[in-house]
Amino acid sequence: MCFSCQTAATRLAPVDAATGSHGSAVGTPGHDAPAPNPAGLPTAYEHGNRLTPEGTTVDPILVEIVEGTLASVEMEVETAIARTSRSPMIRDAHDFRAGIHDRQLRKLTGRSYSALVHPIARDFPLSEMSEGDVFFHNDVYESEGGIGHLPDLCVTVPVFSGGEVVAFVQAFGHHDDIGGAVPGSMPSNAQTVFEEGLSVPPIKLWDKGVPNQAALRIMTRNSRMPDSLAADLDAECSACLMGARRLGELFERYGRGTIEAAFDAILDKTTETYRREILSKIPDGTYVWEDYAEHDGVDEPKLHTQRITLTKQSTGGPGPGDGGPKLVIDFTGTAPQAKGPINHCGDYVGGNFLKKWLAPILRNLADTPERMAELDVNEGIVPLIEMKFPEKGTLLTPIYPAPTNARTFVILRLLGVLAGVVAKAVDGKMPADQETIRYTGVYGKDRDGNDYLMREVLGGGSGGRYYADGEDTIHVVPDSRNLPTEFTESRFPFIVERLGLAVDSGGAGRHRGGLGYEKHIRMLKDANFMSIADRSILACWGVKGGKAGRPFEVTVDVGGPDERTVDALADAEVVKAGQVIRIRTTGGGGWGDPLERPYDEVERDLRWGKVSFEGARRDYGVVADGSKDEPSIDTAASDALRAELRAERAVEQPFFDRGPGYATLAAGQHAADVDWV
């Protein structure tokens, strides 16, 4: 056992054993040392339990007040970070999250996902914490699954009432650079975590209000952007300390017993709502589907399988949630861990992080879109989901020190795999596949000869739905945004010549997939282009007759003598001054038969410039002429063309359409065995 593990083990007393992730952590009563988690670290800390006895009542009006206050504090923390941070990724792109957790480490807020408090409680007993303490970590393998890659730095502040810890305020964000082999700390061909930057296990960064300057100096010394890193960390620590004061005031106002009863009521309400309104829509049974990452930056492109076997049970198992519907998500069949950085550490505390990460997909089963928007995801969904992981050594159960910086290829694909397997259960009444995160950027010397790094996270199209088209240029990171052109042009040596919708990128369907971005950047000085992206071969899939969207693509020197397509995983693609970089992000998959799309909706797409005249004919069987401003559809010719296209189809079509890129990685097959219903 390593020294840090021995130190933590001596601090922690064993607790009662529990059978699942929702309850006390795994431990063995009467033994001197707790059972280790998959990383070999002790897990004898309490988490997941109720704060008050079953049946405790609390004024429902007060519950609403508490719930509103929690949301307000969370928003205030995020606003403070946005206004006081410095890096483009945090301040402008808003790639950060805040969360509020109770003393049993349960996430109380549901506006956004967040990291976990579990590693802090594991290594630092609550009884030894003090007001003004700030804890820090980013070590993927010691985060209990809450941190996916090293650039996500996490700060945690305890909340006190009556001298005891009663809650936690936490924030984590994607920082521009924390060391490693390449600027931005996301080397596309990394084969160990050591190449990806500085790993920091849980430490006390502030002690009773006093910052640990030595630790801060170590972190900034390892960064290519030390000033912005220092400013961002200061913003996050200060914002969480402010949030802790706000929550402390709530406890003072109403009393600890009342507030903790309200916390239990908030989570109970979520459990009952999802049981009644969401899980009840899935028929009992077992359903299987899989999707794939396409490359890992080291091996040649191939299908890296991510499989879910979903079992809907009419009654839950032992513990919280017993007696109602339950979902079992089994990841058996997921591919071995990759050599490159697309792995994700998901198999910790019963998949606690992944449960809350994947659960928002289930909201699509709500009765209406308006109701879906009202449903938050907090710890209340945890007892409704059981996760089963394969043995160590897969994409979801990697063995240290496997690299993880591009783990979005896995955890974002899992959102689509869950949507797909549920779609099989509910006759397609789920959205088609959506865009996935990709990081693009340039770096080099600015006008003054100083090093710069510009990186952003451009969105793409969401999938068509059974009742509506997909949304254009959305992003799975809540409240995130592309970098403003005015800001980037004033700070970096390039000009943004175009930023608009990528025409024809949305998958064709009765309900079209949303469109991705098209962005043109003309470099004013020699630079290097970087990209961490997938969906450049495999497309966002369509469902129930809908077609796949257009994949991600980057072209350098558009229209010039050196025009070339750049690999989606690139660390240092040379771009000369005057050359244009064209970035086209993914379009969402289509839903339903595109030949059933009404002519007036195709005409509207032509008028809005979302579909070209050629695309209308090819994808929708619509013959049109005229101009973009005044398109005219030839109904008779379109009827004839649609009849011809229907006659050319195979008798049976798979339930999912993966696009033409799938065949290139699947030995010529156009559909997987699991694509049929």
TrEMBL record:
Signal peptide range in chain numbering: none
InterPro entries hit by this protein:
Hydantoinase_B (IPR003692), Oxoprolinase-like (IPR045079)
Q: Where is the Hydantoinase B/oxoprolinase domain?
A: 59-594
One Pfam family here: Hydantoinase_B
Q: Which domain of life is it from?
A: Bacteria
From the Swiss-Prot or TrEMBL record, give the protein name.
Hydantoinase B/oxoprolinase family protein
Instruction: State the organism named in the record.
Output: Terrabacter terrigena
